[in-house]
Write a structure and sequence with these properties.
By secondary structure, the chain is α/β, with parallel strands linked by helices. Helix 1 packs parallel to helix 4. The longest helix is centred in the N-terminal third of the chain and has 15 residues. The radius of gyration is 20 Å and the shape is elongated.
Length: 270
Amino acid sequence: MTLGEALRESTQLLERGGVDSARLDAERLVAHALGLSRLEVYTQHDRPLSEAEASSVHELVERRAAREPLAYVLGEWGFRHLTLRTDARVLVPRPETEILVERALMVIEDVPCPRVLDIGTGSGAIALAIAQERPDARVTATDISADALALARENADRAGLRVTFLQADMFDGVSGRFDLVVSNPPYVLASEQIPPELGYEPREALVDRGQTARLMAGALRVLSGWLIVEVHEERAVLVVQGLTELGYSEAKITPDLAGRERVVEARWTP
């Protein structure tokens, strides 16, 4: 079997599995299995594969065809300027969360040495992106999951970034005042039909059980500045209303790249 044949068969297998981006995923999986760039995959189409190489490709492609998230199969995922380790302990970092980080960086743009708190850090994507792009920021990140924090610490070590990690349920054990509280809490509705890939991700990090409401109220104790939260596209207006009722000001919604109402921000002045 040549590399080109392996790529063609991999694409067909992913298509049969219902993967929308079958060709692109096949390219990435073949490249990963063989230790090549995607460009090298195309320039080496006629290269014969050893039995071990063909088996490695097939194993990864079968996992993706079963609808395991591509990020888990690859073991890493890009987020802004970072490459993060990813596995089933945490949610896969998503492009819409990059919009949240963008807004976070904008609201603290003029704040010297800002104190930032990331609630429910998961892989550490938000906290580490802010720490990387604002080296003067003092970033604390919490998560209730010890497994998630272990992976977040590993990502911090790999990136050479300094973040204080704390195992906590929301704001438990958090002290002091922060210029920014940021979070991507669980917001998938329990009644919502989800794609097969989400079945691999930790349910406690996906399904909304009132975490956004707890976040909005709990932030009042530690915040002197902005709260920015990722939300369900059907709940953004309700979140803005809730923040206004709690006394926050300047609430606004920012859409994601697909135009869905995804990020809500508001200011709290004690």
